[in-house]
Design a protein that fits this description.
Radius of gyration: 15 Å
Strand order of the largest sheet: 2-1-4-3
């Protein structure tokens, strides 16, 4: 369980990956931007750093990625 407080810094992963382009090989530089908890939803990927208190993590930093949409072509 992750606890978010008024002091938690929230970031959104803004790394621009284009699934239409083949991978170039090599490192990808991650980009983050200020985010909003309102954007975190089902299937979002969440990472948090903070202080563990029992079974909870009181987050000082929370970063999320929106779910990826996969487009199938026939």
């Amino acid at each position: 369980e992750i606890v978010v407080t008024k002091d938690t810094q929230v970031y959104r992963d803004a790394t621009a990956l284009n699934p239409e382009q083949p991978a170039q090989g090599g490192p990808v530089k991650q980009k983050v931007e200020p985010g909003s908890l309102d954007e975190v939803g089902e299937n979002s990927i969440v990472m948090a750093w903070g202080e563990r208190r029992g079974e909870r993590l009181v987050a000082s930093v929370l970063m999320y990625s929106k779910p990826m949409m996969i487009k199938f072509q026939q």
